[in-house]
Amino acid sequence: MGDDRTASPWVTAFGCVLAVAGAVVAGYGAWYLTGALSADNRTNPLREIGIAIGAGALVVGALPCLAGLGLVVRGVRRRRVPVSHRH
């Protein structure tokens, strides 16, 4: 019964949206982290805060991205029809 729910096209679509949103947040975190680690910010007293925000956004974005990819993979695998059952 639980297998049928993960085969829903809505679950796969939700996984796609979750993966894209997570990738956007992770990309923003990587961009922010790159800016915080740049040579221009070497003497900035708030550099450590920028590094923490960038690293946090990178991790927070990576988690839903991986979860979304997992939902997509699981949904696609559940919907596949075995070769022996094809006509």
Word description of this protein:
By secondary structure, the protein is an all-alpha fold. The protein is 76% helix and 0% strand. It contains 3 helices and no strands. It has helices at 2-6, 9-36, 47-79. The two termini are 25 Å apart. The mean pLDDT is 87.
State the total count of DSSP E strands: 0
Span of the ends, CA to CA: 25 Å
Helical fraction equals over 70%
Return Rg in Å: 19 Å
Number of helices: 3
**H-E order:** HHH
Largest β-sheet summary: none
Q: What structural category characterises the helix and strand content?
A: mainly alpha
Shape: rod-shaped
Query: Unreliable segments (pLDDT under 50, ≥5 consecutive)?
Result: none
Mean pLDDT: 87
Strand fraction equals under 5%
Short description:
By secondary structure, the protein is mainly α. Helices cover 76% and strands 0% of the residues.
